[in-house]
Amino acid sequence: MRGKVALARQLGQGVSVIAASLGLRFVWRMDKKYFQDKNVLVTGGGRGIGRAVALRLASEGANVAVNFVSRQDEAELTATEIETFGVKSVPLQGDVSVVQEARRLATETRKALGPIDILVHSAGICVNEPVDEVTWDIWKRTFAVNVHGTFHMIYAVKDEMIERGFGRIVTLASIAGLRPRPLMPHYAASKAAVISMTQSFSEAWASHNVRINCIAPGLVDTEMARSLPTESWEQCIVGTPMGRVGEAEEIANLARFLVSEESSFMTGQTLAASGGRVLLP
Fold it and tell me: Looking at 35, 85, 187, 201, which residue is catalytic?
């Protein structure tokens, strides 16, 4: 903690320190409007990782559309918080698994904010079912949201990004897509598909200055993760070399890096943020 306090002092004026659980402190630079005049669409932006990403980018000047499916109050609260940074925000209802709704989300974002520069696709579901109890309906719904939803949202924004010669897209997978998950084969398979999709699209559109990268988090302290059985939650922590769960703000910081020019020579990459549970070559 002493080092983090020293960092805050070193940055001086224009920082926002976000207190999280476990005594962690996240220092966000506020003195430079890095994303000023950039328009961002964050799916699943009303809570969890999506909310943290929306606030992170807004803190540096981005206008942000906050997508939600059913929890309107949370999305409106997030949009209100975003506006305190002096930027524009709009909450938008829509189910990304439905292609018409995904297209409408993009259209309404453009009407409210302008051309879409950045898409952070955070919407997803995880139904905790043992392998012997996974039904075809659960499998189809998981793929509809996690895989088809990713496709729908990327295709809802990619044409304008290609035409304008600028686009930044971040998809959210999971380390479940990088290693066997016998207890959640439906979820693991869907996230592996997101990683593969990200790689293929990134190569297809790299020449148009459209960069697409993926984040594969480990266990992060969100409502979705908290739905795990207590035993599974504890086992995940024990199996994490850093000995703790991640915070949504930590994933948001990584998303910020991927949509910034600090990652200007990166596309098609999957970055694991898992406290050491998965080590990529």
Answer: 187
